[in-house]
């Protein structure tokens, strides 16, 4: 296959966008679309190679997979060895345990499935996942486990035009699926092959028609310019909040096709620009740079317990480039080609290059080593014995949350799983609950506290929460995606139905991410008030919405306990806390400055207090009042780590803080039966 320097130049643009997006968030907001450019290039190059070899009668699946392994595995193995050593020193046991699991997924070629099941790409905890970027390698690997075989089996029986038609049909189906799935399950659409295959197939379709394309200079110039504009616009205009992938990924993908088609057909201006030697060199090291940059950014951020500033990010990028150059020259290149007997005395062949047979043995050995290492990290739970008993005790508290959240949180569980979600006294069959907990995930994290209260007061209690959805009746909850908006609407409906079907409710506890909901609800109300639509001012502001929600309960004689939002950390300073414990220092020094925390909570705390002051059946507890001392809000109290992550208390924290939560007196409170 003829080498196309401009393709490496295009790779350079893609890797620059990806690295810039990871290292300098907000500068190139859609830099993640660089991966889509890589997918198209990969589909084009690999399909071109396979189709050419099939046509020549020289294609072999064995040689194909050996070539892929030579291209990808040596650099990946070298990177994994270094990253694992760094992780062992930097990551705390829970994060190192997760790293071991992700390494096992990488070795098994299902990183994309693993990260889909365990967390998102665009969330803050992504900084705790040094191998998150391997999801895209898994997508490619899964594609190439089947695509060459399909081409090999189809070529003797189907014409190239028929194969092209089937490719276009599959491309359209995958794109349709991606667009449909992105509004229902964005993480699935992002990570999984069925919704990403169209991007690789776009490059494959181009490869099938490339040899027959006859474009004039004017058409080639126009096509290449349109393509580069589409790609660069994607990098600059997309953002983590875009409905991506799906049709929003189409400009980057079809733009890449336009660039390749235009630059192949004629020696246009963009062909010469993308073939500029420094740009080509960046493209040549792009795979190694992709491997190295993210783990270094993630580990540095984790070590500092905050996002990198511009200077730190620049240093990490510089180190990544240096590692990539070294990896490309001394790891990638020597293993790319098989060593033949005639090469034995050649100065142009690295002395450690191997024959195909020896390389396969070495590759399988490396895979076995990585799998064994990953299994050991996973099996030993991240090697917690690296730390003292006191630190291990605190770290064990970190991973303890509401033990029944999976079965009880969510609108679909409001009337399900009663045997698990009924806390305190068992409800009589067909009877009414007396106590209920409402809210989003910041309501859910108080479940251990409310459970203890129900047990102490011998009340039949029930969890009625939905992560990511506030309890604000009669208010459309603003959400990032349509499916989440619908989910929150369903939660409001089910929660109100729960109140109506439980006439003996005496007390409810409501909590949530109040500052977020106050900001979003008030912003939506302000937009509607300024709308030209006469009905535009129908939405309630936060105070009014909260007051009406509370009255839904108090009008029925139900007492309401509102719990304010806890101080939030981004991220939780766990390394600082463990370091303080190891050094016998006060862990409170790792906390948030009190003035900063109170400023962040000021508006929502004031709103809760206003609503409570106007209704005698409502009481409010403001966590910052008892979590903050003179100067700082401590994440540790009485030797107990209060948090599970930066925004949620853990089981032990919820139970400990229960002593400060104000619960109203209940008339004729039933006595606790003797144990």
UniProtKB/TrEMBL annotation:
It is a multi-pass membrane protein. Residues 408-661 form the SGNH domain. GO terms for molecular function: acyltransferase activity, transferring groups other than amino-acyl groups; hydrolase activity, acting on ester bonds. One of its GO terms (cellular component) is plasma membrane. The keyword Hydrolase applies. It is found in: Cell membrane. This is Peptidoglycan/LPS O-acetylase OafA/YrhL, contains acyltransferase and SGNH-hydrolase domains. Keywords: Acyltransferase, Cell membrane, Hydrolase, Membrane, Transferase, Transmembrane, Transmembrane helix. Gene3D superfamilies: SGNH hydrolase (3.40.50.1110). Residues 5-328 form the Acyltransferase domain. It comes from Hyphomicrobium facile. GO terms for biological process: lipopolysaccharide biosynthetic process. It comes from the Bacteria. PANTHER family: ACETYLTRANSFERASE, ACYL_TRANSF_3 DOMAIN-CONTAINING PROTEIN. The chain crosses the membrane at residues 12-33, 39-65, 72-92, 98-117, 162-178, 190-210, 222-238, 244-264, 276-293, 313-331, 359-377.
